[in-house]
Design a protein that fits this description.
By secondary structure, the protein is α+β, with helices and mostly antiparallel strands. It is built from 8 helices and 19 strands. The chain is globular, with a radius of gyration of 38 Å.
Length: 407
């Protein structure tokens, strides 16, 4: 290198150091400002850092500068490192973490699509053209759902319109044993005594609040309770026709328990039924009760009352009717009851007043569907396993034929 070029290099190095001395105060003043910058500006800061690294401030080949200049250079590098520490790096969370942080909504957390795709989902069956007569079984082959129809469509008897094939699912409702139990817990019986307020049967579908005024033992040894109703009237009833006038404890309840439910439109009237579901994730932590007239209803614990002395077979308290047969099969199948699967807007046939009538699904709520009949605009809630559904009636008919053949 010639002497002229060396002088130029030394002059450039001195100019670079002087330039750094003028930059240091500005960099130190901007440190606090950078720390408060928003996340959106962080990428721009990173770009500016890269540009600064390309400047002469990063490396100075000369070592002949004065001590004061070296001190300024050290403080400059500290300021630059402080700026880099203030940079915020954004990391996108996976979708499953974002979903977990959001509060669950009914459609997100309890939708039919979600339940069918989860590990504890309902086992689904849909007839296919090439399906065989073999039974399908659940995960550990504990249950069989009967022979399947070979037809992919069903025919409407009224107008011969081809309808979509029914989808029958065997629902696994619970995640732990306390959600599936249908055995009465071994707990001491609560005392029933005179002057105790109870709910007593006044009519088959009407229970009312009253006070026990006497206890009578019949000649055959049966114990009867004389109840004086709050409104008016008296009645002599058995222990399975009175219920405690207090909210039961959760450990007292089980699938198949005999209960009465307070009417939401009249808090002084109660209706008898059988507990069909315990609270779980699938039913949004509610109790499902089948009334003795086959009406299903989801209720909370405050609306339930437990019958004082239920019969050994609670279904013996229900008159002989199709609902009694349905309940017997339902309790036998639990915790894998058969359900049809529908979606809002779908048309189907449901028995009303002794005849199959056309209706439309308005809403699906766990095990229930809310339908409106086309002929008279009558609306009601129907259980997705009800024998009133044409699809379910045909499925149960085929299942009965198979059982007869096997016998």
């Amino acid at each position: 290198m010639c002497p002229f070029e060396a002088d130029i290099k030394d002059t450039a190095e001195v100019m670079e150091v002087d330039e750094m001395e003028t930059r240091v105060p500005g960099i130190q003043e901007s440190t606090d400002r950078v720390e408060n910058e928003t996340k959106a500006e962080s990428n721009e800061e990173m770009d500016s850092d890269e540009n600064m690294s390309d400047s002469p401030c990063e490396s100075l080949p000369s070592t002949s500068q004065s001590p004061s200049k070296e001190i300024h250079l050290e403080s400059s590098s500290d300021s630059l490192s402080g700026i880099k520490k203030a940079v915020v790096v954004l990391t996108r969370l996976p979708d499953y973490k974002i979903s977990a942080l959001r509060p669950p909504t009914p459609l997100q957390f309890y939708s039919e699509d979600d339940s069918l795709s989860s590990s504890d989902s309902d086992m689904q069956w849909e007839p296919e053209d090439d399906s065989s007569d073999s039974d399908f079984s659940l995960s550990n082959n504990k249950r069989k759902a009967g022979k399947h129809s070979k037809s992919g469509t069903t025919r409407n008897n009224n107008n011969n319109v081809q309808l979509p094939a029914p989808v029958i699912i065997s629902a696994a409702f619970a995640h732990c044993s306390n959600e599936t139990t249908k055995t009465r817990p071994n707990l001491p019986e609560e005392e029933v005594k005179v002057d105790m307020m109870v709910l007593a049967r006044k009519k088959s579908m009407r229970w009312q609040r009253g006070k026990i005024v006497d206890m009578v033992t019949k000649e055959d040894g049966r114990l009867k309770y004389k109840v004086c109703f709050e409104e008016k009237g008296k009645s002599l009833v058995s222990g399975h026709h009175i219920a405690f006038d207090t909210v039961p404890k959760l450990e007292q309840l089980y699938v198949g328990a005999r209960v009465v439910v307070r009417c939401q439109d009249n808090k002084f009237r109660f209706r008898p039924g059988v507990l069909a579901e315990l609270p779980s994730r699938k039913n949004r932590l509610r109790f499902l009760v089948f009334m003795d007239d086959h009406t299903p209803v989801y209720v909370g614990l405050p609306l339930l009352r437990l019958v004082c002395r239920p019969l050994e077979d609670v279904l013996d308290d229900i008159p002989d009717c199709p609902h009694k047969s349905f309940m017997r099969q339902y309790l036998k199948d639990w915790p894998y009851p058969h359900l049809t699967q529908y979606r809002a807007g779908q048309n189907l046939n449901i028995e009303l007043n002794g005849a199959q009538q056309r209706c439309e699904v308005q809403l699906v709520d766990s095990s229930l569907i809310h339908v409106v009949f086309q002929e008279n605009q009558h609306k009601e809630w129907i259980h997705r396993g009800s024998m009133r559904l044409e699809h379910m009636a045909r499925f149960l008919e085929m299942k009965g034929v198979e059982q007869d053949d096997s016998d």
